Amino acid sequence: MNESKELHSTVICTQGGRILFVRKEAPEWSLPGGKIEPGEEHLEAARRELSEETTLQLSSAKFIGHYVYQSEEHYLYQMPVEPTIVPHPSDEIVECRWFTPSELELVNVKPNNLDLISRAERFLRNRN
After folding, report:
1. How many domains does the chain have?
2. What are phi and psi of 107, to 5 degrees?
3. Is a pLDDT exceeding 80 seen at residue 3?
């Protein structure tokens, strides 16, 4: 039996060398994003989820790629955030926080999210 994977749109928000993560009630941090609704385009899902979770508006986002994991697929975007813009948790999110790469090693992060960051870094490095 072929089990279908969850489809997600995920946004890597960057600001001054830091990456934005969000946290629900659980202690695990994740990149902003979430499930794509039936009939929804992945760009629209990224826009909706980012706004719902952080109050940020999706703008100047680069599409990085489509990545398939064992139980989920991610349409990945990267978006720079101006230093004057501050994300605020909303809906089911209890905390938004900027992390440096070294700080991420000290907290519980969804494993696929670390891989997505690595893939985005490679993509951006190869484009410059």
Report:
1. 1
2. -125, 165
3. no
Cα–Cα dist 77/43, whole Å: 9
User: Residues 5, 71: contact at Cβ < 8 Å?
Assistant: yes
Question: 46 in a domain, yes or no?
Answer: yes
> What is the tens place of the pLDDT at every residue in 29-79?
999 999 999 999 999 999 999 999 999 999 999 999 999 999 999 999 999
**Which residues 6+ apart lie within 8 Å of 109 measured at CB?**
21, 28, 29, 30
Rounded CA-CA distance 33/27 in Å is 17
Radius of gyration of the chain from Cα atoms?
14
> Cα–Cα distances in Å, from 42 out to 4, 35, 46?
17, 9, 6
pLDDT of residue 82: 95
* Residue 1 belongs to some domain of the structure: no
> 22 lies in which domain range?
6-126
Who contacts 76 (Cβ-Cβ below 8 Å, separation ≥6)? 10, 11, 12, 63, 64, 65, 66, 67, 116, 119, 120
